[in-house]
Amino acid sequence: MDAHSRGRADEIDPADQWVLNPQTGNYELRLDRSAGQSATPSRSHGPSAPTAAGTGNSERGTATETPVPGQRRRRVPEQTRGGRQTPTSRRRPKRSASRKKKVLLWTGGAMAFVLVGGATGAYLLYNKLDGNISVVDPIGVEGKGFRKGEAFNVLIIGTDKRTGAGNSGYGDANSPGHADTTILFHVAKDRTNATALSIPRDLMTTIPECQTRQPDGTILTIPGQRKARFNVSLGQDGRDPGCTMRTVKELTGVDVDHFMMVDFNAVKELTSAVGGVKVCVEKPVDDPKSHLKLPAGESLIEGEQALAFVRTRSSFGNKSDLDRIKVQQQFLGSMIRQMKSDETLTSPTKLLNLAEAATKALTVDKGIGSLAKLQGLAGELSGIDAKNIAFTTLPVIDNPDEPKPVTVVPHPTLAPQLFAVLQSDTSLTEVKKKEQDAKNAQTQAQAALLQGARATPADVRVDVYNGSGIRGAAQSTLSWLQNERGVLRSANKSNAPEKAAKTTLTYAPNQADQARALADMMGLPATALKPGTQDAGEREPMTLVLGADFKGAGVPVSGPVKAPDVEKVAADQQVCAK
Question: Which residues on adjacent β-strands are paired with residue 392?
Fold first, then answer.
């Protein structure tokens, strides 16, 4: 008896023998023992439905397993119970409160699916979805997976490549595509929160040398480029997503573990799959460039209209790419809410459409290049509440090298502070509590050494040496000390004689008050303070050597990582575009 003929004695619909177990999230073959059938399905009949790992046949019996809600049966007027006839109960078992969370496996790049139908149908559907995914294997990128107790980072790249139906008319039709919209998605090690950092496409940065594998199998080495627009890290000169990953690591100091790349079609198809995404605008929009037309207030958009919404830069703010990023973040937050809503979770049709659209839209690295591996990613993200997903943008200033700036560069103090937040796995949504906890520990450790009077910033004299190995560290620290802390009697002494593992501040006994003041400003630990034995002259400066523990100007060398004063919004908040 094969998988389609089993269960007839108990009048079970064969299409429903493969059912979802809400305790595991897997589809399993369930047989009612009252039909006189074996509790263990034979491995010699037909393909088995894939498990969460995407593997073959199931040998699970039903004797020790609990009934699975949702199994449909043909109505039978009466059933036998204890030798007497009793009416068939119409009462349905209560739904578990957490069931909807177990039904949906969700990712930041949108990944969900429901396998329905008979065993053969489920197997074919699984293979179809798995085959939809495009995989790129960047050279030098190690797909290490997701280790418990470790944070990880996924780079989400939106390319402006004009592939797909209806997209050729957007201009630049033959372009290989740029890194048009890029978000570094940091997932905390405890899986309670995430930070989505948008990187402006017009940011001037360093693109490292990278290698790419060509269609004929040869390896192409692409030279690095200084003072280049960030968006040319992809597509241009043969660069692949691995080059963008290296560029982000060079910029932020954060290891990028995986990437997901999507094109224009992804926005159109994903929004249609979930039945539209709610957006809000403060005033009516009629943009002739993007063809976006919306009334003031809330609207439900999908398809071409959704693409126009995320592409427009003429309708909001100061019509810059930075304001377009804010609108895109608001859109993504709304899309996350829609994907996690009951409307989506309780609709098998929407979930299946979403799965089809998401797998077609994604190009990923080999480390997450299968349906089973994407399910693993989904499991890591499924418990994060939308209120604990913070969207923010890399702080920037106008490019000082341009008379009329059209590009930007990282803010000299706020950008390193935000990078330190990611490096230290500090949540932007819980940063105040973490700051206070760390500050208390630091205060206790430093109390004894740092007791005593402190000089005013105007009285502090210090020479700054760069032993960190980070280009421009001494100058950025000097700028921060002078412009934001008022330490005007400071000087950049360029590179230290040799690289230093730790930051140190050397001072004379009669400069202790200056040392305490500078230690407070820079967050230096007590171990960084190196007192001398002889008093210094009246105009003699202290010596500050920046070491490998230097994280950026204004970023504490140890102790609490302080979140910079940057604009951010949580994914659970509805914001109207201005």
Answer: 197, 568
Q: Note the pTM of the prediction, 2 decimals.
A: 0.67
Do the beta carbons of residue 495 and residue 467 sit within 8 Å?
A: yes
Is-contact 213 241, C-beta < 8 A? no
Name residue 408's amino acid. V
Residues in Cβ contact with 354 at an 8 Å cutoff, skipping those fewer than 6 apart: 110, 112, 113, 270, 273, 274, 339, 344
- pLDDT, one tens digit per residue, over 208-220 is 999 998 878 889 9
Length of the chain in terms of residues written: 578
Integer Cα distance of 76 and 79 in angstroms? 7
**Amino acid in the structure at residue 387:** K
Token pair for 424: 């230290």
d(CA 468, CA 566): 26
Kindly report, residue by residue over 235-275, the tens digit of the pLDDT. 888 899 999 999 999 999 899 999 999 888 888 888 898 88
326 φ/ψ angles, rounded to the nearest 5 degrees = -60, -45
Token pair of 37 as six digits:
């059938």
C-alpha 314/C-alpha 316 separation (Å) is: 6
CA distance 538 to 535: 9
DSSP 62-98: STTSPPPTT--B---SEEEETTEEEEPP-PPPPPPTT
Are β-strands 210-213 and 78-81 bridged in parallel, bridged antiparallel, or unpaired? unpaired
**By C-alpha distance, which of 360, 391, 389 is closest to 269?**
360
CA pair distance 299, 285, nearest whole angstrom: 11
Nearest one of 134, 112, 129 to 363, comparing CA atoms: 134
CA distances from 563 to 184, 249, 421, 433 (A): 17, 20, 6, 11
